[in-house]
Amino acid sequence: MTSDITTIDVLALATVPNGAAPNSATLDQFYAVLADGRRRRLLDHLASVGETTFDDLVDAFAGEFPERERLANLLYHVHLPKLVAAGIVDSRDGVVTYDPPAGFDHLYEFVDANANVERATHGADEGFDLLADYRRREVLALVDEHHEITLPDVADEVAIEEFQTSIVEIPPDDVLDVYLSLYHDHVPRLEAADLVEYDQERDLVALSAEGASHAASAVDE
Fold first, then answer.
1. CA–CA gap between residue 182 and residue 84 (Å, rounded)
2. Model confidence band, residue 191 (pLDDT cutoffs 50, 70, 90)
3. Where do the domains of the chain lie?
4. Which CATH number fits domain 133-220: 3.40.630.10, 3.30.70.3270, 1.10.10.10, 1.10.3720.10?
5. Given pLDDT bands bounded at 50, 70 and 90, which one contains residue 193?
6. pLDDT of 3-39, one tens digit each?
7. HEC letters along the chain
8. Are both 2-106 and 133-220 of the same fold?
9. Which stretches make up the DUF7344 domain (predicted)?
10. What is the tens place of the pLDDT at every residue in 137-174?
């Protein structure tokens, strides 16, 4: 059950096996769903009941909120839309149905295998939030594979995947946009989370000491 998840191995979850991997945008949305404890509990509840009315769904969680109307607004405007966007539930005409793609079972199993383990690096909310962006996952996957890699090389790899063509076919300005997003946003977040280290002078990204230690322990298991 996803609501039981308290810690996760972020580095392991950055690279999803082929049999469990949806497309990058869907995986972004799936990890975004899991990046909130309330949504994880909501997901488990819907998985257990299969189908419910929206009013009954509000009733199921009403005991935890002093204001029913505020709970209904949070479910309707915040949490359910994320589950719908991820393709996990269908919500229409006041009825909410748990209906994930068949392949999501493998994804759940993959997440479960890397949650609440000794090598877990981060709390669930923070960890899944870090994973809820393809570019951050790609940085982690590349440094895990190469141990260290230049940021321009990371930008090239991300651009190739996003544009689905060779690097020579991608406009240089688009590659630069990817580089700048990595430099200003994604790599600093991963560095703040103690997953990578960035050497600005060499423009080099590497696994942090903690990240390398956890990667080694994962291999040993």
1. 28
2. very high
3. 2-106, 133-220
4. 1.10.10.10
5. very high
6. 899 999 999 999 998 767 778 888 999 999 999 999 9
7. CHHHCCEECHHHHCCCCCCCCCCHHHHHHHHHHHCCHHHHHHHHHHHHHCEEEHHHHHHHHHHHCCCHHHHHHHHHHHHHHHHHHCCCEEEECCEEEECCCCCHHHHHHHHHHCECCCCCCEEHHHHHHHHCCHHHHHHHHHHHHHCEEEHHHHHHHHHHHHHCCCHHHCCHHHHHHHHHHHHHHHHHHHHHCCCEEEECCCCEEEECHHHHHHHHHHHHC
8. yes
9. 32-90, 128-205
10. 999 999 999 999 999 999 999 999 999 999 999 999 99
**CB atoms closer than 10 angstroms to residue 2:** 20
- Residue predicted with more confidence, 55 or 64: 55
Indicate the burial class of 184 (C-beta count within 10 angstroms; 0-12, 13-18, 19 or more). exposed
DSSP string of 13-36, one letter each residue? HTS--TTT---HHHHHHHHHHHTS
Instruction: State which fold the 2-106 domain adopts.
Output: Arc Repressor Mutant, subunit A (1.10.10)
| Single-letter amino acid code for the residue at 93 | D
